[in-house]
UniProtKB/TrEMBL annotation:
Sequence similarity: Belongs to the IUNH family.
Protein name, per record: Inosine-uridine preferring nucleoside hydrolase-like
InterPro entries: Inosine/uridine_hydrolase_dom, IUN_hydrolase, Ribo_hydro-like
One matching Pfam family: IU_nuc_hydro
Superkingdom of this protein's organism: Eukaryota
Lineage, broadest ranks: Eukaryota, Metazoa, Chordata, Craniata, Vertebrata
């Protein structure tokens, strides 16, 4: 089984990605680390625990991570994910923060990777603050990773948070910069435009949510707000092509669990702009080899949507 470590800022699509991993017989989840991002760090932790509880998997350790970006700033995306990060449909019986592990996320990440050298696939679906901090704290941590999957960045200077910046990278550009500077393992990126270009029809989403299971009923409840936002006319501006059912974090997770879902990709060194007045947080692709870091990352281009749909269906079974 593939050993997964998952770093999340649990909003709605992070929840979907976690459920996809939980449903896969091919992976073992060694831990989930939480970061700031879509919502406050407390909410991100609570939402993660709530998802595990719904899936009957409270045995998976959850760790509290960084509350602010490297520059001590915080963004959130409550317009999209709801004020609580999960569509504002609270569950009074959801587990509390006392269910978190005592160890902090960054230390846990380093420990888990140290105990499983060369075996851990790290899937990061939020701002990269925890991952970058781990890389700075322990230079051997990135060297001992098997592979890294990231949801973030953009390839066509198309933003969803700033004019040309994607949320996870804009929420902590320094962290993303550090990760690309230090990473040496195979690294795969599902960018904003990639997920837009591989979106699914809403008729599939209806079928997905209509499954007669507690997981599907839970998802229908927490996804309602986000679905309304995506289907609004205003949202068309953010997306590439016609907006469909687009669950960004699930693309990254699906590729990590089952690499055969990736039908086309390209390899190129990347970095992140830190200084631009308009372009801070934008991903930079270095096709002509001028960046100091020559390590190529794999940018996902095309998905097998039939395999992807099966994986999504299984997540709510
Ligand atoms: C990313 O930002 C967050 O809002 C989503 O959870 C996803 O990780 C998309 O830009
Ligand atoms: Ca996310």
């Amino acid at each position: 089984k593939k050993k997964l470590l998952i770093d999340v800022d649990t909003g709605v699509d992070d929840a979907q990605a976690i459920m996809m991993a939980l449903a896969s017989p091919d992976v073992e989840i060694l831990g989930i680390t939480c970061t700031h991002g879509n919502t406050s760090l407390d909410n991100s932790c609570k939402n993660t625990l709530r998802v595990l509880d719904i899936c009957g998997r409270m045995d998976i350790p959850v760790f509290r991570g960084c509350e602010y970006s490297m520059l001590d700033e915080k963004r959130e995306a409550s317009d999209f994910h709801g004020k609580d990060g999960l569509g504002d449909s609270p569950d009074p019986n959801a587990p509390g923060l006392d269910k978190l592990q005592k160890r902090k996320a960054v230390q846990a990440m380093i420990k888990i990777v140290k105990e499983n050298p060369g075996e851990v696939t790290l899937v990061a679906t939020g701002p990269l603050t925890n991952v970058a901090t781990g890389m700075v704290l322990d230079p051997y941590f990135p060297k001992k990773l098997k592979e890294l999957y990231i949801m973030g960045g953009n390839t066509e200077s198309r933003g969803n948070t700033t004019s040309c910046g994607e949320f996870n990278f804009v929420a902590d550009p320094e962290a993303a910069y550090i990760v690309f500077k230090r990473v040496t393992c195979p690294t795969y990126i599902a960018t904003w435009e990639f997920s837009c270009r591989n979106s699914l029809p809403w008729s599939f989403c209806d079928k997905w949510l209509a499954q007669d299971t507690d997981k599907a009923r839970f998802m229908k409840k927490i996804y309602k707000h986000t679905q309304e936002v995506i289907q609004s006319a205003e949202y068309e501006k953010e997306t590439v092509g016609k907006p469909g059912f687009n669950t960004c974090d699930c693309y990254t997770m699906a590729a990590a669990i089952n690499p055969s879902v990736v039908k086309a990709s390209e390899e190129v060194p990347v970095s992140v702009e830190l200084n631009g007045k308009y372009t801070r947080g934008m991903m930079v692709l270095d096709y002509i080899g001028l960046l100091p870091n020559k390590h190529k990352v794999t940018i996902l281009k095309k998905f097998d949507l039939e395999i992807f749909k099966d994986m999504l269906m299984s997540a709510l079974k």
